[in-house]
Every structure is written in C-alpha cells, then in structure tokens.
Amino acid sequence: KGFFIEPLLLIPFVENAFKYVSHHADKKNYIRLHLDRANGTFFFTAENSKESQLPLNEQGGIGLKNVSRRLELLYPGKHQLEIKETEDNFTVQLKLDLS
Description:
Elements: H1 11-20, E1 31-38, E2 41-49, H2 63-74, E3 79-85, E4 89-97
Antiparallel strand pairs: 1-2, 2-4, 3-4
C-alpha cells in the first residue's frame, strides 16, 4: 500500500525462475523470491538453482532483454538490474527508485 510499480513488471523474472529451476536428484532444488520496500526504494530478488548447462534448445531467449529495455523506458535513471549466473545458481536483483 502506498506505492506503485508498473503492472506485470516482475513476471518475466518469476517465469524464468520456474522455467530454469534445476531438477537435481542429489541436491536441493529451490526458487527464492524476496520483495521489500524501504525509504522510497523497491527491492526484488529472484533466485533459483539451475542445471550446470542448459539444453541447446533452451539457450538464447529474449525475455530478460525485453524486460531490461522496458525498465530503461519506464524507469530511466531510476533502476538497477543485476543478473548473476554461476554454475549452479541464477539470481536477479532489481532496485527501483519510486520517489
């Protein structure tokens, strides 16, 4: 209550977390979503375990590129998007200045 972000802005991040979550038999498979707001700033983190290597037909999507461009248009100079990928983990961190 008391703040607004563009509709459906976070959906691509959540979809990707579910689409690419790992299916390990011997390790933990997880998706973690965190949302917070403090002092006029909105924070969002999506993190998921992933397979070490994606199948060839799963590589090269445009979803993250599209949402990155959308952020540039909707929140010019008022957002930070950080995407980190390791062998076993994928993390997206978004910070929006709502002031």
